[in-house]
């Protein structure tokens, strides 16, 4: 059973940066497609970014249009961790951010194919 633990959330002013971390235990994250989702109050959980499982060619990434150019997902296989670097934050980025992992798809980009979820970390961007 894989357990995912997020960290790095907090309160930041608009235009600022945060780096979220997702640490895994009970499994090797390089074997999973790993993604970040977010859920704002009253809204559905939405895809943010994903990185594919690592193969001979490395990993590739997907980012939602709303965060392209501002957020970057990456992984450190030696540390068994995935990161989300968030720059130029906007108030509309305020949400609980969840780390997710899947073996059923190349990318963890749809909540329908997620095998494991973290507990979430709050990100609040003030204007």
Explain the overall architecture.
With 127 residues, this protein is mostly beta strands. It is built from no helices and eleven strands. The radius of gyration is 14 Å and the shape is globular.
Count the strands?
11
Shape: globular
SSE order, as H and E? EEEEEEEEEEE
Q: Which class of secondary structure composition applies to the elements?
A: mainly beta
Helix proportion: under 10%
Percent in strands: over 45%
| Uncertain runs | none
Radius of gyration: 14 Å
> Terminal Cα separation, in Å?
40 Å
* Major sheet summary line: 7 strands, mixed
List the total number of helices.
0
What would the average pLDDT be, to the nearest integer? 96
Q: What are the defining features of this structure?
A:
127 residues; mainly beta; seven-stranded mixed β-sheet; 0% helix; four-stranded antiparallel β-sheet
Give the structure's gist in a few sentences.
This protein has no helices and eleven strands. With 127 residues, the chain is mainly beta.
Write the topology of this structure.
Blueprint lengths: L2 E5 L2 E4 L4 E8 L7 E7 L6 E6 L9 E3 L7 E6 L4 E6 L8 E8 L13 E2 L3 E6 L1
Parallel strand pairs: 2-11
Antiparallel strand pairs: 1-3, 3-8, 4-5, 4-9, 5-6, 7-8, 9-10, 9-11
